[in-house]
Amino acid sequence: MYESYYGFTERPFQLSPDPRFFFASKHHQRALSYLQYGLDQKEGFIVITGPIGTGKTTIARNLMSNLPEANIVAAQLVTTKLNPEELLELVIAEFRIDYQGNSKAEMLKAIEQFLVALHEQGKRALLLVDEAQNLPSETVEELRMLSNFQLDNQPLIQSFLLGQEELKGIIQAPNMEQFRQRIIASAHLRPLTVEEVENYIKHRLQLAGCDKEELFSEQTYALIHEKTQGVPRKINIFADRILLFGFLEELPSIDIDAINAVAEEMGAELTGSLSLEQSEAAPQTSKEQLIVNSSENVENIKDVLREIEDILETSIKQKVKMARYVDKLLKQKNRQLAEASVATNIDETKPD
């Protein structure tokens, strides 16, 4: 929507991970280097952890897009709470292994035959497990058992695990000692610094075709860092919304006032919150249940209704702005069509 207004060839802050937009902060470059090191070693586990939205999946996509296809066959799993048998079924499905059995032993046999066939072709398998914090410890242990498939003293499959910070607790459990001994490197992603936020935004703007030197004023980057805590996913959400706001308000560049206005809007909405913490109220006991005829609770209800009214009012204002924009586009299109029609009629009336 705002792309043509600001001269972009595409949206610079899309939410879906795109390896083309990979930004190598110090921590992200280290994590990617560890993954590459693991590939070179051809054995062991690499574990990458980090908070929600710090770019683990983007790193995975970046690695997958640059794999040497000649000798590595890769599969990426995005896990839920799989038991060991379900994990094996997913491995079979992602590697497209021909399997007709109905038992765990037969699944393991089919996987082994597939891996041996790859080895005979001079290839090996790489399993990249995203959202690995969802796996129970016994399923992580199943991954270790898969790494026992070897031929000519070479592992036939290698696994990389990427997950949120809870993955650390799973791996550090007392019963996971054997798995820990197979980890050859691990890295933890952290949010971006103020300087990295500035470089991140400029990097994405440049890749999206932005030819304006100072679309965001220098003072805005520290404020964006403050509002997003330096988390890349939140930066993407916030910056995308800022550009939409700038377009609707017809701003030639983004300043502090625009940042604050968007932050206030997003804070009042039901979605798009910039808050990193989502607190959950503890369940009420029977003595804490809402008493409808209490004057204090009536006032609380009124406050809630006022907040809902403010949210709806903000939403309506946004829709009005959007309607005005669509109306402007339609008028512009009609004007272009009329001019084109006049030009055509003039050409037709010219003598040959």
TrEMBL record:
Against Gene3D superfamilies, the record matches this protein to: P-loop containing nucleotide triphosphate hydrolases
One GO MF term on file is: ATP hydrolysis activity
Q: Which domain of life is it from?
A: Bacteria
Domain called AAA+ ATPase: residue spans: 42-211
Q: What's a Pfam family this protein contains?
A: AAA_22
| Name under which the protein is recorded | AAA family ATPase
Q: Where are the transmembrane segments?
A: none
